[in-house]
């Protein structure tokens, strides 16, 4: 069974980005997360990560639709 909550390093591995990029995404509110424990360690719920990924697919699809390739871009 997969864990419900992920470490920021686990999220970074899933997204193939750096730990610091994930930390910035969490601190900016772009990626929902919680702080737990006495040391305030960040955790991202797996379901929230999947929602975030789906949101990014939708945003990318909209960007591609609004910015079609031109012949110059194809070169």
Automatic annotation (TrEMBL):
What are the entry keywords? DNA-binding
- Name of the protein: DNA-binding protein
GO molecular-function terms, A-Z:
DNA binding
Tell me where on the tree of life, at the top rank, the source sits. Answer: Bacteria
The Helix-turn-helix domain, residue ranges: 9-54
UniProt cross-references to Pfam families, sorted A to Z: HTH_17
Q: Does the entry feature the keyword DNA-binding, yes or no?
A: yes
The organism encoding this protein is Micromonospora fluostatini
The keyword Transferase is assigned to this record:
no
């Amino acid at each position: 069974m997969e864990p419900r909550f992920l470490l920021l390093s686990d999220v970074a591995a899933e997204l193939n980005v750096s730990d610091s990029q994930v930390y910035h995404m969490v601190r900016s509110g772009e990626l929902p997360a919680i702080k737990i424990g006495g040391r305030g360690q960040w955790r991202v719920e797996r379901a929230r990560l999947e929602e975030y990924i789906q949101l990014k697919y939708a945003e990318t699809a909209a960007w591609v639709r609004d910015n079609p390739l031109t012949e110059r871009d194809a070169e």
